[in-house]
Predict the 3D structure of the following.
Amino acid sequence: MNNTPYVLRVTAAFFAVIIFFIYGVFALFNNSEPKMRSEPDYVNIFGGFELTEAAQASASGSGAAVTLPAGSGAMPTGSTGTVLGKIVKRTIPSNGGNLSGGGVHISNSTDLNVDINELLSSKLGFIIEKGGSPQVLIVHTHATETFLNEDRDYYTSGDRTRTTDNSYNVTALGAIIAEKLNNAGINTLHDKTQHDYPEYNGSYSRAAKTITAHLKKYPSIKVVIDIHRDSVQTDTTKTKLVADVGGKNAAQIMLVMGSQSGNVKNFPNWKENLKLALRLQKNIEETYPSLARPLSLMSRSYNEPLTTGSMLIEVGTEANSFAEAVYSAELLANSLIKTLGS
C-alpha cells in the first residue's frame, strides 16, 4: 500500500503550522502598539529651531511612550549641576506675524484667509454670567512643565524642565488665574490633573476626557483655557522670552489656536474660538504692549473643538524664571477678566 499521499499531506500540514506560528510571532513583535500612541503636539517655528518634547519623541520615530521622572517636591537649584549651555534673553515683537488687523497680529501657519476685523466685530456665541454656575475651566494638558528657579544666563544638568510638584509647574499659574477670575465674579474651575505624567504620549487624549467630563457635569462652562509652557532651544543655547511690564520682567505669552485646515477635518466651529482669542489678544496688546507674542494660528485642533471658547496659552519657556511666569499669569488673568467681563 502506497502511503506517499498521506505522508505528503502530513508534511504539508506540519510546515503550514510552522509558517503560521512564525508569522504570528513576527506580527506580535512588529505590529503591537505601545500603550499610548505618539500624538501631534504644538511645534512653533521660532528662528527655525523650536521643538517641543512631544515633537522630539515623535521625531525619534520610535513611537514608544515617553516616561517622565517624578518631581522631588522641591524646585531644583541647578547650582550643583554641570553647566550645559547659555541662556539668551529675547523679546518677540507683539506686532510681528504675517497677518494683522484691528490692532491684532497673527502668525498664520495655515492656508486660510482670516479677516481679523470681521471676527473682532462679530458677536461671541455666548455670554459670561457672573456669580452663578461655572463659566470657565482651566486645565493643563502638560501640567508638569516647569521653569528655572532664578533668573540667570546659563542652565545646568540640575535644571529640570518638568516636575510633578504643583507648586512649581504650570499648574501653579492656573491656580493664580483661577483665583483672580473667581475674585472678579467669574466662576472658574481649575483641574490639576497631570495628563502628561507618567507618560507624555496621549496627553491630549487624556485631557479631552477630563474636559468632556467637566462639560457634562457643568454644561454652563463656556470657556476652556489650557495653560502650557513653551520650549525654545538650539544646540547648547536656550532662549527665555521676556517683556518689560511696569519695570518688571514678565515671561512672554502666546495664544495658540487651531483651525480646520490641513489634515484637521473635525473643527467646523474654529472661527468661534478664534473670535474669543482675538479679543483677548487685542486686550493684551493694548494693555501690556510687549507681553504677547503674535497669536499663532495652526493646522491643529488641541482639543479646542470641544467648545466654542477654547484657547491654548503658552507662558514663557523653560529658560524663564518661575517668578517671571507667575507675573505673566497675573497679567494674563487681568486681561482675561477684561475680555470675559465685557
In short: Confidence is low (pLDDT under 50) at residues 20-76. The longest helix spans residues 4-31.
